Amino acid sequence: VELSCIIKSTVTPDPRIEWKKIRNGDTSYVFFENKMQGDFATRAEILSRTSLVIKNTTRMDTATYRCEVAAPSDTKTIDEINIQLTVQ
């Protein structure tokens, strides 16, 4: 599955991007400090700097995924988007 976090424009040369997984009230890192975390390290990757691709998804991957972008040089320095993923 591919989850996309589109950045339309930014003046910050290298905005910081983080992905988090929120499930049953618990938040965990998926992509943090430019690397995959936990079990995502062996089955997920970042495409085009902003899209999260999760391979071999299972029902345990059902959650809300939050993409957070920090762009300190921009007028809006931080933004986020939540994507609900349901694996049947």
From TrEMBL:
GO BP of this protein: cell migration
Ranges of residues in domain Ig-like: 1-79
Pfam family, one: V-set
InterPro entries referenced in this protein's UniProt entry, alphabetically: Ig-like_dom, Ig-like_dom_sf, Ig-like_fold, Ig_V-set, JAM-C
GO MF annotation, one: integrin binding
GO cellular component, one term: cell-cell contact zone
Record PANTHER family: JUNCTIONAL ADHESION MOLECULE C
Protein name in the entry: JAM3 protein
Annotated organism of origin: Malurus elegans (Red-winged fairywren)
